[in-house]
Protein: EAL domain-containing protein
Organism: Erythrobacter crassostreae
Amino acid sequence: ALLERDLKNALKLGEISVSFQPIVANDGKTVVCQEALMRWNHPERGAVSPEVFIPIAEDALLIGPLGEWLLRTACHEAVNWSDDVKLTVNVSALQLNNRSFLGTVVEALAASGLAPERLVLEITESIVLEMDEELEGLIRSLTDIGVSFALDDFGRGYSSLNYIEKMQFSMIKIDRDFVQAASSGSLKSQAIVTAIVSLAQSLDMVVTAEGIEADEQAIAMRALGCTCFQGYFYGAPTESVARTVDGAAEI
Ligand code: G
Ligand code: G
Ligand code: G
Ligand code: NA
Ligand code: MN
């Protein structure tokens, strides 16, 4: 409850910021995406993990304004990057269920001048499992304007395959616990990664291995067919200069 109260004021107090973490190509060098990650620097507690404050934001109906700020801020940053670097932004189910989300994305793109083709929305399996006609329509509209989707944290949750059939993802991100298991020799995890890679190739999806902390893990995941990599080995999330400013969720 205390955190919720503080989170209500965090945007206008300038406590929210965005960090970016690279996703690199098969060569382990070329940055193909930067993932935007929300950060909350609490005046007394210091950094509060998104694992803690995102669920609070969702419960308190604050994820809308926070997510909108992050999207606008991240688009403004990304427009200064090289044209071949995409921006990925995490979106939660509540954001996608809001009727104004399409407008929010369109406005963030227009205000920043970022090409829609450079924006990738990361969503988790649980969202897709709640897919209904309205959500399908929203996803189609976003796809039509050029925005694409990544399936985040694959392997963490329910891992049923039917959601992959329901929508087109440009990327599947294999969760770091799964990467850990597969790269440390679990034959079952390796077999599952191989199957996902095969599926991804036939459906034109890139497979990213998350949570790479050592070159040996990248080598193991590359051998299984992953072609993009993310993790501390390549770069931790790095804070950008943009911060919320007093009285404004806009920049
Ligand atoms: O930054 P960190 O790796 O600790 O992120 C923890 C979790 O918080 C991840 O699951 C990540 O996807 C989520 N997260 C980070 N930033 C955002 C955001 O802007 N919106 C949403 N919905 N989730 C985020
Ligand atoms: O560092 P490198 O040259 O590989 O980065 C590729 C592109 O991504 C460049 O355009 C660079 O400006 C941008 N970039 C790399 N890391 C970050 C980051 O942490 N934040 C921001 N805003 N841009 C980054
Ligand atoms: O759910 P999502 O994949 O968006 O979560 C990203 C989270 O993973 C962020 O909190 C980020 O700080 C964290 N992260 C990124 N790279 C690594 C890594 O190599 N190892 C570990 N343990 N965490 C990582
Ligand atoms: Na993510
Ligand atoms: Mn993830």
